[in-house]
Amino acid sequence: MAVRSPKQRVLVADRNPATRDWFRKVLGGAGCEVLAARNTEEALVKSDVDLVIVELAESAEVIRQMQAKHPRIKIAATARSLDPATLRAADLLGAQAVMTMPLVSGQV
Q1: Could you tell me which residues come within 8 angstroms of residue 90 by beta carbon, excluding any fewer than 6 positions away?
Q2: 102 prior amide bond cis, ω within 30
Q3: What whole-number distance in Å separates Cα of residue 25 and Cα of residue 71?
Q4: Residue 1: inside a domain, yes or no?
Q5: Which domain holds residue 58?
Q6: Own/partner pairs for 6-9, CB < 8 Å, 24+ apart?
Q7: Hey, what long-range contacts does 33-41 have (CB within 8 A, 24 or more apart)?
Q8: Greater model confidence, 106 or 14
Q9: What local confidence, expressed as pLDDT, does residue 21 receive?
Q10: Do the domain assignments include residue 4?
Q11: What is the mean pLDDT of residues 50-61?
């Protein structure tokens, strides 16, 4: 009998409901349990997750606080462009990945 690994828990913190819904559909379809947060306060409460996907421009403080409270959590940031300044900011904040918006299924 095969042993099944537990579902990965992903928190999507984005002010845009369409973005949260898109991630819920794509990641949920891949077998992840997807939680959503509309703002920083909600995101910081939902910390029992494996991955947090946040808007880089809006969530620098979320990234800092999540990393400080829960160093094992992986962070993926979304950004409008992948210019050197954006990539450097994501790196300095501790994000392990950066994705451009709007997203397409192959990026997740």
Answers
A1: 56, 77, 79, 98
A2: yes
A3: 27
A4: no
A5: 9-107
A6: 7/31, 7/32, 7/33, 8/32, 8/33, 8/50, 8/51, 9/33, 9/35, 9/48, 9/49, 9/50, 9/51
A7: 33/7, 33/8, 33/9, 34/10, 35/9, 35/10, 35/11, 36/11, 36/12, 37/11, 37/12, 37/13, 38/13, 38/14, 39/13, 39/15, 40/13
A8: 14
A9: 92
A10: no
A11: 83
Tokens found for residue 64: 């800092």
Q: What is the DSSP letter of 65?
A: H
> Which CATH number covers residue 87?
3.40.50.2300
| pLDDT at residue 108 tops 60 | no
pLDDT at 25: 94
DSSP-based three-state secondary structure for 103? coil
Answer whether residue 3 is part of any domain. Answer: no
CA neighbor of 33 nearest in space, from 42, 24, 43: 24
Q: Tokens standing for 46?
A: 């939902």
Number of structural domains (the chain) is 1
